[in-house]
């Protein structure tokens, strides 16, 4: 075999092992018995140690020096393998293993602390996670910014200064739009209970309508909805609130956006670095456009209104227009994943600033709860009432995902660009959505974005798909037009 072929064969084994590790993570958050947490942490640590050793293997560097790519996809494979190899070499093996072990254990402690409304019970292990992530960031950054180094693991070719500039450009218009809306009468929401079985049945139907391949996936319950896996095994989770079916339905649609991205990637890329999304921001663009620009559109809400009445009977809203207003209500709330489109990015800005301060050392973990509560009161105008509605609401920091949060807003920006191009290319899109037909929209996204996997860098894949550079303008224009009409601004 050529050096390129040897490298790719080796890489496929590494990718397959990483998928096994991911499956352990899925099991931990869905069906693993609570008493297994300590052992699972050890298991995850061992797998990470093996993966780290494989990624640092000197043969990888030797193959990279000698490999000649046969085509553009091969060049992209070498780019991504080299990137992973270089990052891995910077992180000591014992640190990588310890991170995997501690974050596995921290996830369970976070879930327990969240259920008991007790940040102090979570604080010790979070302090250990933050300490380890600071070490990892410093190792990766060398002489640079540790937070930028962590961010680069989720969104290549992006740094905190660029994101902060985008946030600074977005914040005034989002704050002004939010203030104008909250001065208007709030639409009525749904006021009855919705049974779990009915919500899950409709969630499964919606997942199929948005293109989820059930022969290669499954839907389960979790504390925090997520998507796991790639290729021929891509799993999603959701959660249920009997008083709020939109939580379950739109969480499912959101995760299906992630899942169909993974399922649609060119099968030639399976178990290679190109066999996954281009970045977490691009990944989020798919889940957000599925959930919001498609799933919360007036046209699709009209179809969903009729479908929900078939399943649940009277919905406590008068008609399809009132249902559309209920789906898109802008209202006070604590939870990021339940936030409306207008306020969602303000939640991300709060987390971005706090996690940068944690990694830099400007904020101690012991002061995190108070800092969160103070910032939330400043940004949203009311006080956090309990830890599960505050700094314990998200799983991300417990599992070490520092640098991940800003990719949610990047995903929204990318989705804004894609939505503008999608509607330009499919002028009859609303007619399709009004019939519950997602095939045109999801097919467009599959062709323009999803099938390419990691072939292109994030800004390139969005630019190629949308025909425009990435800016915040399409998203802000969309939000101002949609909610301006809804609230008669």
UniProtKB/TrEMBL annotation:
PROSITE patterns for the chain: PEPTIDASE_M32
Top-level taxon in the UniProt lineage: Bacteria
EC primary class: hydrolase
Keyword entries, A-Z: Carboxypeptidase, Hydrolase, Metal-binding, Metalloprotease, Protease, Zinc
Catalyses which reaction(s): Release of a C-terminal amino acid with broad specificity, except for -Pro
Single GO term (MF): metal ion binding
GO aspect biological process, one term: proteolysis
Cofactor details (free text): Binds 1 zinc ion per subunit.
The protein's Enzyme Commission number: 3.4.17.19
Active-site residues, record numbering mapped to chain: 255 (proton donor/acceptor)
Cofactors demanded by this protein: Zn(2+)
Residue numbers binding Zn(2+): 254, 258, 284
Summary of the function given for this chain in its UniProt record: Broad specificity carboxypetidase that releases amino acids sequentially from the C-terminus, including neutral, aromatic, polar and basic residues.
Family statement: Belongs to the peptidase M32 family.
Protein name in the entry: Metal-dependent carboxypeptidase
Annotated organism of origin: Pontibaca salina
Lineage of producing organism: Bacteria, Pseudomonadati, Pseudomonadota, Alphaproteobacteria, Rhodobacterales
């Amino acid at each position: 075999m050529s050096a390129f072929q040897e490298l790719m064969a080796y890489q496929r084994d590494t990718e397959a092992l990483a998928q096994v590790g991911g499956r352990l993570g899925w099991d931990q958050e869905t069906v693993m018995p609570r008493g297994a947490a300590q052992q699972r942490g050890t298991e995850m640590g061992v797998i990470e140690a093996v993966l780290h050793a494989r990624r640092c293997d000197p043969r990888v560097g030797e193959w990279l020096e000698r490999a000649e790519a046969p085509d553009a996809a091969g060049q992209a494979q070498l780019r991504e393998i080299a990137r992973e190899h270089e990052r891995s070499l910077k992180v000591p093996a014992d640190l990588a293993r310890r991170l995997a072990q501690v974050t596995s254990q921290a996830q369970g402690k976070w879930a327990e602390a969240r259920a008991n409304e007790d940040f102090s019970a979570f604080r010790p292990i979070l302090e250990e996670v933050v300490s380890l992530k600071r070490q990892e960031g410093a190792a990766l950054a060398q002489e640079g910014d540790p937070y930028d180094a962590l961010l680069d693991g989720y969104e290549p070719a992006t740094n905190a200064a660029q994101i902060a500039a985008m946030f600074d450009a977005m914040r005034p218009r989002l704050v002004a739009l939010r203030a104008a809306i909250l001065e208007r009468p709030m639409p009525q929401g749904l006021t009855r209970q919705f049974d779990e079985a009915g919500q899950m049945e409709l969630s499964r139907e919606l997942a199929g309508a948005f293109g989820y391949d059930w022969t290669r996936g499954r839907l389960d319950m979790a504390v925090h909805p997520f998507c796991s896996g790639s290729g021929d095994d891509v799993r999603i989770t959701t959660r249920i609130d009997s008083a709020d079916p939109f939580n379950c339905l739109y969480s499912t649609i959101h995760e299906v956006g992630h899942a169909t991205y993974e399922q649609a990637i060119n099968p030639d890329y399976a178990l290679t670095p190109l066999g996954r999304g281009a970045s977490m921001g691009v990944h989020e663009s798919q889940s957000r456009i599925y959930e919001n620009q498609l799933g919360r559109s007036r046209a699709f809400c009209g179809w969903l209104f009729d479908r929900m009445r078939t399943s649940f009977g009277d919905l406590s809203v008068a008609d399809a227009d009132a249902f559309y207003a209920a789906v898109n209500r802008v209202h006070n709330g604590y939870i990021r994943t339940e936030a409306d489109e207008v306020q969602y990015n303000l939640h991300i800005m709060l987390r971005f600033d706090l996690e940068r301060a944690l990694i830099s050392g400007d904020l101690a973990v012991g002061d995190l709860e108070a800092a969160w509560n103070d910032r939330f009161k400043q940004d949203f105008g009311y006080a956090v009432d309990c830890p599960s509605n505050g700094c314990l609401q998200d799983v991300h920091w417990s599992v070490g995902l520092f640098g991940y949060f800003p990719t949610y807003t990047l995903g929204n920006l990318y989705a804004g660009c894609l939505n503008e191009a999608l509607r330009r290319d499919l002028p009859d899109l609303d007619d399709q959505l009004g019939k519950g037909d997602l095939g045109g929209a999801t097919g467009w996204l599959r062709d323009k974005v999803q099938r390419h996997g990691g072939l292109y860098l994030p800004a390139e894949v969005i630019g190629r798909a949308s025909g425009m550079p990435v800016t915040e303008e399409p998203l802000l224009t969309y939000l101002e037009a949609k909610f301006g009409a809804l609230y008669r601004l």
